[in-house]
Write a structure and sequence with these properties.
mainly alpha; Growth Hormone, Chain: A; 2 domains
Length: 419
């Protein structure tokens, strides 16, 4: 565990607690904003680029997440060498460059490249914000900071589509990507002015490809790390399938909500925030295994209910019932995924930085792949999404059963002591 930051630096330069939490949360939030803010612009983009197959626009989500996933492999190890501050500022610069390129795009292929660049830049915020918190805080204080950070962070996907919709009321699709550019520049400026380097010089690592590869080898040969990382990827795939096809389902072909789409999307996303609150209150009493395994099984149950509902109404179920079940699915995944991630990281304290980067990259890429499979299957009904939820939920159960050698709810390896 890292020692505290030099007290002289703390007194002179580090922002106060509230400002620190807000800055870290918004740095992480750049990722979600880059995905969800663009969703209301899909119809405008289809008209601008002459896209007849709306499924092609889903690629704007999936190439972004692919860039995001790959880049996470890089930022963690690099920041251990050069420090958090320069690595994060470079990442925000890459994100801003991608946003500017997206604004100036004249064809869909150029826009897709721009989105991949944006995603690669966003990877810095996800990896390094957590590292900065770890540098400054430990133990219960770190848990407190991360809980408060996640509450703010979760509000981003709730509000981002609404912000995108408001932008489109007064401007065209170019302004959507312009808002991402402004956000990146604003956060980068705030960070540069207020946040000093948090990694102490004595904790910097020498540049070593062998060290990184050794950490990755340790991670992939660790049964809980690979198993629970795969489980996170499967559940994340269902979320990405939902995000990619949500605009077509709610605003377009199935329900035709148009401008009301952000309200429905935000309502479903808000339940992830509720899940974070519930988990923070229950995990110390019930443990990660019980909560995550029960939530995983509940997710499969939701998948069964979604498929039954879709079949009963020929792929176009009543809006309220469908949204209610989707919300329950988000609640279940929001309880399972953070605990799965913690269980994946639990045995890897000796290589935590590299392991975090690898697991983050791996789960994102797995999720983006499965999400693309689900999203690209959209056919004017909710069948692909409901089958995706059920299929990926069953895959998650199988992976966890293999990881835990057929034993659920109780750990086959010791959990950390709860203080």
């Amino acid at each position: 565990m890292h020692a505290p930051v030099d007290p002289k630096i703390l007194r002179k330069r580090l922002p106060g607690f509230g400002e620190f939490v807000a800055l870290v949360a918004l740095t992480m939030g750049v990722t979600a904003y880059g995905v969800d803010n663009a969703l209301p612009a899909f119809p405008a983009l289809a008209r601008a680029f002459g896209v007849s197959d709306q499924n092609q626009l889903q690629l704007l989500v999936y190439v972004y997440m692919t860039g995001f996933g790959v880049a996470q492999l890089v930022y963690g190890p690099i920041s251990d060498v050069v420090g958090r501050r320069p690595a994060l500022l470079v990442g925000l610069g890459i994100y801003a460059a991608g946003a500017l390129m997206a604004m100036l795009s004249g064809e869909l292929h150029t826009l897709l490249v721009a989105r991949a660049i944006q995603g690669a830049g966003a990877g810095a915020g996800r990896v390094l914000a957590v590292a900065i918190v770890r540098d400054r805080y430990a133990g219960r204080e770190m848990a407190r900071v991360m809980s408060l950070t996640m509450i703010i962070f979760i509000m981003v996907p709730v509000l981002a589509p609404a912000i995108g919709g408001l932008i489109l009321l007064v401007a065209d699709w170019h302004a959507i990507f312009g808002s991402m550019l402004v956000l990146a520049v604003g956060i980068g400026t705030w960070f540069a002015m207020r946040m000093p380097e948090t990694l102490r010089p004595e904790y910097r690592m020498p540049a070593s490809v062998g060290r990184v590869l050794g950490g990755i080898r340790t991670t992939v040969t660790c049964r809980p790390a690979l198993g629970y990382g795969t489980a996170v990827g499967c559940m994340f795939g269902s979320i990405m399938g939902y995000v990619g096809s949500s605009q077509q389902i709610f605003a377009g072909e199935v329900y035709g909500l148009g401008a009301y789409f952000p309200i429905v999307f935000g309502s479903v996303a808000a339940l992830m925030g509720l899940a974070a609150l519930i988990n923070s209150r229950l995990v110390r009493r019930l443990g990660m295994h019980r909560i995550s395994h029960l939530s995983m099984l509940a997710f499969v149950g939701v998948g069964v209910a979604l498929c039954a509902l879709a079949l009963a109404y020929d792929g176009r179920p009543p809006l309220v019932a469908f949204v209610a079940l989707l919300g329950l699915g988000q609640l279940a995944s929001g309880l399972a995924m953070p605990n799965f991630n913690a269980l994946a990281m639990e045995p890897l304290g000796a290589v935590a930085g590299t392991a975090s980067s690898f697991i983050g990259s791996y789960t994102t890429l797995v999720g983006a792949f499965f999400g693309a499979v689900v999203g690209q299957s959209f056919n004017g009904t909710v069948y692909p999404l409901t089958l995706g939820y059920l299929g990926l939920g069953i895959m998650t159960v199988i992976v966890v059963l293999v990881t835990e050698r057929g034993r659920l709810f109780r750990p086959t390896h010791k959990e950390p002591a709860r203080s």
